[in-house]
Design brief:
Helix content: 40-55%
Distance between the termini: 20 Å
Oligomer: single chain
Largest sheet: 6 strands, mixed
Structural class: alpha/beta
Order of helices and strands: HHHHHHEHEEEEHEHEHEEH
């Protein structure tokens, strides 16, 4: 058990507990959190983290009411069409952000309750300062030579998980997507950039901190909220290009109650894993154990 990890997971959870009701974190607390805690008590950790969409579904009507209130506040005299557009805008804008926070907070809760040596935090400078090996976002910066110019970008993520008392352990950079579709195609870019910066085959691409990028692994966590043409509707998994995207990551995990084609046994991390996508419980279980296989 790591008291440092306990403290940092608690820190993240407190950001939700103290958030204002009209913020993304506040909405996660109001709409989904009690259902999440109840689901863990009823069904256990593994089933709950693999079906986070069920917790979200329980408050669909309440979220729709929030969307209607938003539309009315923006334009009380809006036409039916304009009002529908405003509601859709609210739902699209908030659902992805809320899911991202929900994933991180849910994992933080499980790690905290399991006395894990790992913690999870948002990938923001105010939280990165808590990690000895990753003091700020510039630590993941990659530089690309273009003629006489040097272009710079940092490898980006939504969340990161690490062991605060053992800096030799891997750091997991995590990208979260509420749907796959075309938006998922940009996720493996960050891992490819990391690998290029570590390879001698790309001398024009260099890492600010090679040691850190060797320890940093890049994974994705997604769900499947699409009612029409869901990505995980087939037992063979999503279309080939999305599986290729996932294969270019160190790991890709799914939390979706109706998902098919998600491999649930065998290797789930690294280039030798048995399938492109695995259930989120595999990753969470690895963090609890302190080792991702």
């Amino acid at each position: 058990m790591s008291s440092a990890a306990q403290s940092l997971n608690r820190l993240y959870l407190e950001t939700m507990e103290t958030a204002l009701e009209n913020t993304v974190l506040g909405r996660v607390r109001i709409l989904w959190w009690s259902e999440f805690i109840g689901a863990i008590r009823r069904n256990g950790v593994g089933d709950t983290v693999d079906r986070l969409d069920k917790c979200m579904e329980a408050s669909r009507n309440h979220l729709n009411e929030m969307a209607m209130a938003y539309a009315t506040s923006k334009d009380p005299k809006a036409s039916t069409v304009k009002s529908a557009q405003l509601r859709t805008q609210f739902l699209k804008s908030n659902t992805g952000k809320m899911f991202e926070r929900f994933v991180g907070l849910g994992i933080a809760y499980v790690l905290h309750e399991s006395d894990s040596d790992y913690c999870i935090l948002p990938f923001k400078n105010q939280f990165l300062s808590k990690c000895n090996a990753l003091p700020n976002t510039e630590a993941t910066e990659v530089r690309i030579k273009l003629g006489e110019s040097i272009l710079r970008t940092r490898i980006d993520a939504d969340l990161f998980a690490f062991n605060p008392t053992d800096i030799s352990q891997n750091i997991y950079l995590i990208s979260v997507k509420s749907t796959l579709k075309d938006r998922f195609h940009n996720v493996p870019f960050w891992n490819l950039l990391r690998l290029c910066a570590l390879s001698e085959d790309f001398p024009q691409i260099t890492a600010v901190d090679r040691t850190l990028l060797k320890r940093a692994k890049y994974v994705a966590i997604c769900t499947d909220l699409a009612e029409e043409q869901p990505d995980f509707a087939s037992a063979e998994g999503p279309r080939s290009l999305l599986q290729i995207d996932a294969a270019l990551l160190d790991g890709a995990y799914v939390t979706a109650s109706k998902a098919k084609g998600v491999y649930s046994t065998g290797n789930y991390f690294g280039a030798n894993r048995d399938a492109a996508f695995h259930p989120l419980s595999d990753f969470v279980g690895g963090l609890i154990a302190g080792s991702i296989c």
